[in-house]
TrEMBL record:
Source species, domain of life: Bacteria
Naturally occurring in which organism (per UniProt): Streptomyces termitum
Entry-linked Pfam families: Pyr_redox_2
Name of the protein in question: NADH dehydrogenase
Keywords: FAD, Flavoprotein, NAD, Oxidoreductase
Keyword Disulfide bond: no
InterPro entries: FAD/NAD-bd_sf, FAD/NAD-binding_dom, NDH-2
Entry keyword Membrane: no
Residue span, FAD/NAD(P)-binding domain: 16-324
GO molecular function terms attached to this record: NADH dehydrogenase activity
Family statement drawn from the similarity comment of this UniProt entry: Belongs to the NADH dehydrogenase family.
Coiled coil: none
Amino acid sequence: MYTALRLQRQLRAELDAGTVEIVVVTPDPYMTYRPFLPEAAAGSLSPRHVVVPLRRVLGRCRLLIGAVESVDHARRTALLTTLATDEEGSGPAALAYDELVLAPGSVSRTLPVPGLAEHGIGFRTVEEAIGLRNHVLEQMDIASSTRDPALRDAALTFVFVGGGYAGVEALAELEDMARYATRYHQNIRPEDLRWVLVEAAGRILPEVGDEMGRYAIRELRGRNVDVRLETRLDGCEDRIAVLSDGTRLPTRTVVWTAGVRPAPLLAATDLPLDERGRVRCTAHLTVEGTAHAWAAGDAAAVPDTTAEKPGTPCAPNAQHAVRQAKVLAENIAASLRGRPLKEYAHAYAGSVASLGLHKGVAHVYGRKIKGYPAWLMHRAYHLSRMPTANRKARVLAEWTLSGLFKREIVSLGSLEHPRAEFELAASPPPDPDPEQSS
């Protein structure tokens, strides 16, 4: 989205003349701003305000809602399916192009853990974030209404696997929300909730440094979060999370945030890939040894020209991806006009992470910040990076309102099955009991 947005500005004259067309193929008609997913899950932000509608911001691009199945760059052709493909029964359509920009990002990196595919919950989309919010509140409703102590304990046990940004921020925000929600449950106390963070490494939030990572652990443990370091999830069958240290946790909630891997699409191209499955790129964001092909973001192995060790690739994070998009668009425009390309270079500025409402950690330009100032910095930074003034204003308005009024704790789980009530109403009435009829 960022590349297309800047490209339609760079090529304004060519678009007006009709000599250039920008085609964007994407499975969703919106871009999700992932750093705000934890706040959407906790109810601090409306889900529609953490996404950017592409048709509004990419008004000069041709938008195709669908999925690219494969790319044959030797023939400059991509095979794609759209929402109409199944209805038409025609199969994937071929789309010819002159210049290819690959930015499919990454997907969750799952492991062959027994039961994970059946019971695990991801946290990379707005649908997953809202689904998890509804799920947590639903488990609290189950616990408050059951007479079975084992079911109650399992419903109030929440296991998060992965100590990176996604896992820590999601757990912290949802723990805040659930603890607040207990005041409206007469038979659930905050100490009845059990939150477990499982991390295979010896630390969490490595991006903010060891000191701030240790502070984050102390902060979470002070809120009764069970942080298990150097521990793996070995299984979650039969609603029991089995950890590598031998612990068995009956639970109805296992959230998997243990890393990412490049999008599977890359394996269905004829472009050069590195050992991690990312597209090999140059510092100009061109695909290595390939003309008319470009890549950026999590899917691209772009050399970090500011690193001490030559050949070190840029980390797969938003800080690099957004800045790469700007250079990529400018280089495509320069290439079409016969001008020299410029290299992508960005020194890592640092990281910020939220640990729930009014709590956070930050390590920015060598400075270590924690608590309320870090949380405020987290919000200010991501608000500045949120695309469009429209979305910035809506997010800021919601934050203001959430500071003035009580937190929303409504579960809308029925949204996941919108036709359930109508189907019940439309179903035939049950047959009367023949004994009563006689």
